[in-house]
Amino acid sequence: MDFTAAEASDWGCAVRDASDLVKQISGCERVYAIAFGEGAQHLHLHLIPRHLNEPASKAWAVADLYRDMDRGDRAAADPAVVAAMVQRCRSLISAPG
Question: How much of the chain, in percent, has pLDDT values that exceed 70?
Answer without folding.
Answer: 94
